[in-house]
Amino acid sequence: MSKFVPLSQAVSDNLHDGDVVAFEGFTHLIPHAAAHEAIRQGFKDLTLLRMTPDIVYDQMIGMGMAKKVIFSYAGNPGVGLLRRMRDAIENEYPRAIETVEHSHSAMAQAYEAGASGLPLAVFRGYKGADLPKVNPDIKMIECPYTGEKLATVPAHQPDVAFIHAQKADAKGNVLIEGIIGVQKEVALAAKRVVVTVEEMVPDFADLHPNLCILPHWTVDAIAVVPGGAHPSYTFGYYQRDNAAYLDWDKISSDRELFAAWMQENVLSATPEVFAERVRGLKND
Amino acid sequence: MSKFVPLSQAVSDNLHDGDVVAFEGFTHLIPHAAAHEAIRQGFKDLTLLRMTPDIVYDQMIGMGMAKKVIFSYAGNPGVGLLRRMRDAIENEYPRAIETVEHSHSAMAQAYEAGASGLPLAVFRGYKGADLPKVNPDIKMIECPYTGEKLATVPAHQPDVAFIHAQKADAKGNVLIEGIIGVQKEVALAAKRVVVTVEEMVPDFADLHPNLCILPHWTVDAIAVVPGGAHPSYTFGYYQRDNAAYLDWDKISSDRELFAAWMQENVLSATPEVFAERVRGLKND
Amino acid sequence: MTDFTPDEMMTIAAARQLRNDDVCFVGIGAPSAACNVARLTHAPDITLIYESGTIGTSPEVLPLSIGDGELCETALTTVGVPEMFRYWLMGGRISVGFLGAAQLDRFGNINTTVIGDYHNPKVRLPGGGGAPEIATSCGEIYITLKQAPRSMVSKIDFFTSFGHGEGGDHRQRLGIKTKGPTLLITDLAIWRPDPETKEFVVHSIHRGATKEMIQETCGWTVRYADNVDETPVPTDDELGTLRDLQARTTAAHSGKRDAA
Amino acid sequence: MTDFTPDEMMTIAAARQLRNDDVCFVGIGAPSAACNVARLTHAPDITLIYESGTIGTSPEVLPLSIGDGELCETALTTVGVPEMFRYWLMGGRISVGFLGAAQLDRFGNINTTVIGDYHNPKVRLPGGGGAPEIATSCGEIYITLKQAPRSMVSKIDFFTSFGHGEGGDHRQRLGIKTKGPTLLITDLAIWRPDPETKEFVVHSIHRGATKEMIQETCGWTVRYADNVDETPVPTDDELGTLRDLQARTTAAHSGKRDAA
Does the domain formed by B7-102+157-275 have CATH 3.20.20.140? Predict the structure, then answer.
């Protein structure tokens, strides 16, 4: 299938300056390799969409690629703050960024609404919270049956979504398992979908009938990138590189250290290095 | 666990005259044994809720147990009409029933809203259709972002849900697989949940992490009833008894034939007969 | 091959309309047979979706119901029914929806709800099921129907699902963005909507059928395209595939106790 | 056993509050340690849910993040994040939600969003994550926090999640049906809201802590219940369980390449 392409082509065919783009993953399956390829290709003025922007968004923001971030929790999971993102918000370095902030519940349901082709998500949320005061996208409607005020947010409909998954079969169907996060929803909500996978297998015969699968006709491009989630993890393949998350706190704390690290580990690197990075982290 | 009880007790503890009750199953896993037990216990004035009322609701309506039916497709699947239900609607025999009619999409999303604790479901639906003219529960709201008119229906929140599933483990966790329908949603939307299962197994170790499971603390009572879905089927256990669905067309066409059949096959029967009924239909 | 029934011609003519890259929402009966004949002949990669949640099914035998185990066993994946209606149908991922009808009017509006008054019906039919949203969410709608005066009527008793309404741009006026009914395949002819008025007009007549037969079994005055073709008769391959499928289906469904 | 740190006392005091039949929405850090100590001591059947979608987890080691593989491997089942927030949190199935805070006021209102003005912040914190809806959807909320004047403040800079608002019946006035914060466990004391005003008052002081220490590390004037107890010190079993868990956790997370 022509769906299987090198990562560089998958990125250049589907991502453009100014796009609303989601590199999604909820701790698990974060598409680092795809994000690094986007960094190498030097896109500009992106709107970055994600529930949990973590170090890969910190990197993109630090490289000045983002004009806006839509998110619900911006932290280095289990470690602390995102220092490049803070520098952008607090000091406009390397550029000012706009932030649009939600709760997790709102973000997850906005993806779900996008996948459902709806213009909005309606839910019970934000009661007593200050976010509706600073985010004009959050509105309230009245339930016509009970009179209850319910929150609404616009559906997420990114131009392009990047996700990482375990496997594709030869036809390009994609299997996701473990902590599935919002992987399926972001893919179905997006106009274009790029998937990196650990491996390609001939078919999905003999798998359980109810697994989380994206049919090939919902996916635009697939790149096989072993280790492509590192330092995030791929359930069944390799573990999370917790030490790399701890290291990031240091690297990101200094603008020059950051720049040097990016040069060495991203700009001068290739997707092939990811396989090497997970070698010591593999599951039995 | 005290959750495992005989079917008669599971029904008598949880169902009451006048309840809104759903015996759900989308062709697959229809809880016939539980419904037959409810018929034997002779409940009255029930509001029957189900996307696809088929022969088991035809039986309950024919026995005069229902005052109201909320549904989206009332047919004998692959065969034709529901003759006892028609007799009630067209001729008020054995009693008049009220009907509240939706589309499948609306019903499925009303269960989903009920499971989510929301008072309503919002969706794109019913455009140009006549159902909103005859069902006052269907309303329209305007999307505050796009101005689009979207349909709403009240969430389903039945007093009690009966479902059939493959397995429970010793703690009372319930596994559902194959065509999962709205089994999970109706269980989570209901105030009380009764599950019949094909078998009890010690635990669910070594199963795939993303299977459809109801944790034990979401379930009120479990009865082990092998064959309890017959003439519907249980994926992995036995096939659908298509001949029984064809037979029903004849049985239900005549009030006396119906009464005799119910006496012999339901009122004088016990849950134990279901295991016998599926003997010839078992999967290899 | 000329030894075929009108039903077979209807199913095969419908099958031919399907493309290899279509994603079809399949109803039971003639639509299911047509979709599977397409899959077993010219469209091996067609994606068949049944509203029970089965995506990418390739059943060996035709299901008796929309949720037979065969559909799940041969599917790429099976999702819950709320997801089916939200992500797959409402999400706009279905290219072709197939609908049947108890009553159909010339604009492709369909009734499967009641004959007579809704609150005091002469015949209470099963109801809409998925049809109200299938009719508006799928890219386009194909309708299959055996012609009869009581089925093809000038005015339907209930709008279960919306076709082209009063015709013309009625869909657009309601804010519906999909094409609606683009094809009607009966046991006698192939019909397509007039580009302007959206009234179904006959484009092709099946061998053995006549204009008289078409009019006698239709409750409105039939209109014809400028060039009316004869529908190509079923090929040996098409007819063989359909009959084999039906034979396997009959064998599988007729056995009660020995079907195991 | 008296050889314990204030952090250990905080975690163990929190663990003791959990019941065997609780369903807990667990955050990372002290809440996660407390929930797992409860599970490994007096509440073996407690259901722990992490917002990554893992239901009924029993991790051998504490996760570093909310979505570690360990949580999924030991879970009864793992669902998608939209389902987690819809069916499980908003559906009202969680009995206890655990929250931490960057800033907390006397009514249990929490800020984890910004220090300073939202649009021109002094410190941009990670934000609310699941907290805005955890605070209102769970049956009740337990808060754990190390006391410090910059954390326990008279006025928080941003209402990330709503506790008792201005106190009294403020929750009910907003139509919130759940109890909100019913417990605050710090490294020095156990606090509970006054039944009327909903202001947190100290009910129990940990061994080694004093009223002076409690006031010095709190930005509002501390009130005390009529009867203030001393928090029972950790038992050997509690402390051993916590330390073993933390030792396993440290060993698992410190190794980088050799963790495989």
Answer: no
